[in-house]
Amino acid sequence: MDWALVLILLAMGAAGGFAAGLLGIGGGMVLVPFITMIFTARGFAPELVVHMAIATSLATILFTSVSSVRAHHKMKAVQWRIVALLTPGILLGSWLGPWIAKQMNSSALALFFGIFITVSATQMLLGKKPSAARELPGTGGMFAAGGAIGVVAGLVGAGGGFLSVPFMSWCNVKIHNAVATSAALGFPIALAGTLSNIYFGWGEPGLPEHSLGFIYVPALLVIVAASMSMAPLGARTAHRLPVATLRKVFAIILYFLAAYMLWKAFH
């Protein structure tokens, strides 16, 4: 990699890490569109750029989730019983997500991501939270819920918070516990999804040098270095600024990123 690319990736990782700490969102929301732009500009195979962007984004969560979980655990906010019940389904779903993505061409995958990020941005902009309506389901229901969360997270390269937090809130889990527990779920999502992306991408024709399956390792290392250093700053800033206003601004940014991915789907 040349220094210009390293600087771009550092800036992108810093922005993603800061936003994750500030707003509690998964890095995939920001990273995937930008990584797609960068890989496209670098001349990577057009049929692989979206797959690689999603895989590389998901792999960053392996590293960034650890510090987040540690902070939430110190505050005794993580509901580890819920983590234990959701994780089996999440592991299966997060493994299947990249396999499903491999069956899709780059345009279809970009379209799916664009629609998903549009829905997520709308949820963020409106600030609507599901009303608490019931208790957590039994073991079978939790496995199914974890599987659904894992599949979507594996498909879009995100930590699953936009699905797991509303699900837990709907099931009468207090919001701060839901956010903390969702952060803990990011690790099994990233672990299974990363291993799946390595396995199903291994030996894929057209991958650039220094790829590990669909993961582009140089970009992963640079992004992780920047995002892990900026996430704590974002978390501290969240206590000083009007986060509700920032969420609305960020939602508008997400609409632009969604528009790019939708454009990418048809070009």
Properties at a glance:
267 residues, 77% helix, two-stranded antiparallel sheet, mainly alpha, 10 helices, globular
Provide an overview of this structure:
The chain has 267 residues and is mainly alpha-helical. The chain has one domain (3-265). The protein has helices at residues 3-23, 28-41, 49-74, 80-103, 106-126, 139-156, 161-170, 175-201, 217-237, 243-265; strands at residues 211-212, 215-216. A two-stranded antiparallel sheet has the order 1-2. Strand 1 and strand 2 form a beta hairpin. The chain is globular, with a radius of gyration of 17 Å. 50% of the residues are buried. Belongs to the 4-toluene sulfonate uptake permease (TSUP) (TC 2.A.102) family. It is found in: Cell membrane; Membrane. It comes from Pseudoduganella violacea. The chain crosses the membrane at residues 6-36, 48-66, 78-96, 108-126, 146-167, 179-202, 214-233, 245-263. This is Probable membrane transporter protein.
Brief rundown of the structure:
This protein is mainly α and 267 residues long.
Q: Average pLDDT, to the nearest integer? A: 84
Count of distinct strands: 2
Strand order of the largest sheet: 1-2
**Secondary-structure element order, as H and E?**
HHHHHHHHEEHH
Helical fraction equals: over 70%
If you compute it from the alpha carbons, what radius of gyration comes out, rounded to the nearest whole angstrom?
17 Å
**What's the domain count?**
1
* Class derived from helix and strand content: mainly alpha
The best one-word shape is: globular
Low-confidence stretches: none
Number of helical runs?
A: 10
Distance between the termini: 27 Å
**What share of the residues does DSSP label as strand, in percent?**
under 5%
The major sheet is characterized as: 2 strands, antiparallel
Subcellular location: Cell membrane; Membrane
GO cellular component, one term: plasma membrane
Protein name: Probable membrane transporter protein
InterPro entries: TM_pro_TauE-like
